[in-house]
Amino acid sequence: MKQTAGRDALGEFAPMFAHLNDDVLFGEVWDQEAISTKTKCIVTIVALISQGITDSSLRYHLENARNHGVTRAEAAAIITHATMYSGWPKGWAAFNLAKEVWKDDEPVAQDDVRIADPSGLSKDFPKGEPNTAYAQYFVGNSWLAPLGDPQLGAANVTFEPGCRNNWHIHHKGGQVLICIAGYWHGAAADSWFQHIALAVPAEGASAEWLEPVDAQTYEQLG
Predict the structure, then answer these.
(1) Which CATH superfamily is domain 5-101 in?
(2) Which of 53, 61, 62, 125 is most deeply buried (CB count within 10 A of its CB)?
(3) Environment class of residue 3 by beta-carbon count within 10 Å: exposed (0-12), middle (13-18) or buried (19+)?
């Protein structure tokens, strides 16, 4: 991320601090590739809550987390978990901010049949197991069911409502996607989605995973 807050506020008064804030913290540290941006957002939120920092700084990082795929339900679970270790008043203060940040996200009722009963999914292909190996590249939950001989490189991928994978680039080779339920490379907000993914073999083929599809862009898709 490109940050200029340090230089905007303190560039003349404390240029070294501005450099450390804009170029090191929000540059080198936030750019490290060992963990996803979504994970960095979660770690930052928990660190701020544990210190009792519930001002505009926490709000900024809550908004950043939402933009990088942290859902309303995940935010509630993260703050609840952090509260158990950092203290009840800190949790209340964090929730007051989080409610504002995620106020436009509609909660899903526990008895909503679209979630509890994924009707419309193909009965001809297995749903598979939770897609934990690629969970860091998905917003929401997905399931993966390999099909046939592993050398075929075929799998059925199931997306729950609201689930989508990050932007990504296939370098050489790629995939052929056969939609069998739903209509998008990722689920709509109120319906499930499934596709069969067929790998296209090529020497040196690879996938480059990029940033999540942020909530604003996703909502504009209708």
Answers:
(1) AhpD-like (1.20.1290.10)
(2) 62
(3) middle
